[in-house]
């Protein structure tokens, strides 16, 4: 597999592993999402000066307001964070 294919496979596996912890296997509960962010993005969260950053991220992830994070919402988060880290997001 190429590096990009490997990265995509890791994104899918990470979501599936985290979503398998509670109820629905195709979405993350708030608790699963919070645990995933703390486990998988510790450096980014520690760099934040706001201790409530995880809750803000979770609230922003739930685009449809169903209190769960579906795979597409998860992918948007990862893409947005990647852009922010790479310095390519448009500044408001």
From TrEMBL:
UniProt organism field = Scophthalmus maximus (Turbot)
Query: Source organism's superkingdom?
Result: Eukaryota
Domain EF-hand span(s) in chain numbering? 49-84
The record's PANTHER family line, in alphabetical order, gives: PROTEIN S100-A1-RELATED, S100 CALCIUM-BINDING PROTEIN
Q: Name one GO biological process term.
A: endothelial cell migration
Kindly provide the name given to this protein in its UniProt entry.
S100 calcium binding protein P
Q: Quote the InterPro entries the UniProt record gives.
A: EF-hand-dom_pair (IPR011992), EF_hand_dom (IPR002048), S-100_dom (IPR034325), S100_Ca-bd_sub (IPR013787)
Q: Which GO terms describe its molecular function?
A: calcium ion binding; calcium-dependent protein binding; transition metal ion binding
Pfam family membership, one: S_100
Query: What are its GO cellular component terms?
Result: cytoplasm; extracellular exosome
């Amino acid at each position: 597999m190429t590096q990009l294919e490997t990265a995509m496979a890791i994104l899918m596996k990470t979501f599936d592993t985290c979503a398998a912890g509670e109820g629905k296997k195709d979405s993350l509960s708030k608790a699963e999402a919070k645990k995933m962010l703390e486990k998988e993005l510790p450096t980014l969260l520690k760099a934040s000066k706001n201790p409530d950053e995880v809750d803000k991220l979770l609230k922003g992830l739930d685009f449809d307001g169903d209190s769960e994070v579906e795979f597409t919402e998860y992918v948007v988060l990862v893409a947005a964070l990647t852009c922010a880290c790479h310095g390519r997001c448009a500044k408001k």
